[in-house]
Amino acid sequence: MLSLHSLSDLPHGPVEWVVAVSCAAGAAAIGFLAYKKFFSKDRCCSGMVNLQIQKDNPKVVHAFDIEDLGEKAVYCRCWRSKKFPLCDGSHTKHNDETGDNVGPLIIKRKDA
Hints:
Layout: H1 14-39, E1 72-75, H2 90-98, E2 105-108
Antiparallel strand pairs: 1-2
């Protein structure tokens, strides 16, 4: 078992110092990377869904009257549609590029 009782027990040769400094640098690098991954505020925005629609608003909200929807309405859920809030099929490209599985919200009247 290794124990340090005095300064004379510390490593003195250049090889020992290189090993000690290398281990300390490696531990510091691992600690820094762990901090960036788990505690950095930058990661809050990496999962941002809305990349361009009404970015000047604090919250994007659309409201529709049921009576105005007609027989069927198809709404975007991927935030990539050029006709947002309506779906234009952009989720297909988004899913191919990201591996996601998002699709539209489809609202239709029930057959009587």
